[in-house]
Design goal:
Elements (H helix, E strand, L loop, with lengths): L2 H5 L2 E2 L3 H15 L17 E4 L2 H18 L4 H10 L8 H9 L4 H5 L1 H11 L16 H4 L9 H8 L7 H24 L9 H14 E4 L17
Helix pairs in contact: 2-10, 3-4, 3-7, 7-11, 10-11
């Protein structure tokens, strides 16, 4: 694990208290509650941190380029932008296949818009990640422009606000989105009406961003996953 992350780790909040708050929120939303055996996301005594701001920003920028290719940005222009912004070594294999050769499901790529919204929240550029509200319609304004000069990426990085998310708050939101992901999928399977305009797949994409951004450390946690290796199966 990155030593800089270890240096910033704090004691995670009581997972049982966080889960009680999550269940209250699920009840307010009117969705199914997970069964009592649904696992806690961390254990008492575990520690928590948020990935460095630059890591969050670079990941958000890569998603922006990926989505721009989905929307018609020529692949050569996308690859040149990533090269000049010094981001090529951070692009996942799955992303590179789509950016370089349009290999992959465009519908799955399109879901990354909600993952980008989750990262925008982590960066402090969006006020909330309310599951009842659709993603920000200002993502193209909040994130760097892959259609423009890649030199502008450094300027965007320098304009980002300082750290604004408390790791405990981010962990609590992760717990909520893990349970929401379960609840929405179960609701869809049983034909329950969705409580708002955000579909289950978008809830899962936001959870993806939170699972990647929030770093937990304890006896049952391994190293933070790469973007393509985030596990949403539980």
């Amino acid at each position: 694990m990155d030593g800089s992350i270890l240096d910033r780790m704090a004691l995670a909040p009581d997972p049982t208290e966080v889960r009680r708050g999550t269940l209250d929120e699920l009840s307010r939303l009117g969705v199914r509650l997970p069964p009592p055996q649904y696992p806690l996301i961390w254990d008492p005594g575990d520690r928590v941190a948020i990935r460095p701001r630059r890591d969050l920003a670079c990941r958000a920028a890569i998603l922006t380029v990926l989505l721009a290719v989905h929307d018609g940005l020529p692949r050569r222009g996308a690859m040149r932008w990533l090269r000049d912004a010094r981001l090529l070594d951070r692009v996942s294999r799955r992303e590179w296949r789509f950016i370089a050769g349009r290999v992959g499901d465009p519908a799955l790529v399109d879901l990354q818009r909600d993952a980008a919204h989750g990262l925008v929240w982590m960066l402090g550029l969006a006020d909330d990640l309310d599951p009842l509200l659709p993603r920000s319609d200002r993502l193209d304004v909040l994130l760097p422009d892959p259609w423009a000069d890649p030199a502008a990426f450094d300027g965007w990085l320098n304009r980002l606000p300082g750290p604004r998310r408390d790791p405990a708050d981010a962990a609590a939101l992760l717990d909520l989105y893990c349970c929401l992901d379960w609840a929405y999928q179960e609701g869809e399977r049983h034909g329950d009406p969705a409580p708002g305009p955000v579909p289950p797949v978008a809830i899962g994409a936001r959870r993806w961003a939170l699972e990647w951004a929030v770093v937990l450390r304890g006896p049952y946690h391994g190293d933070p996953p790469d973007w393509d290796d985030v596990d949403l199966s539980v």
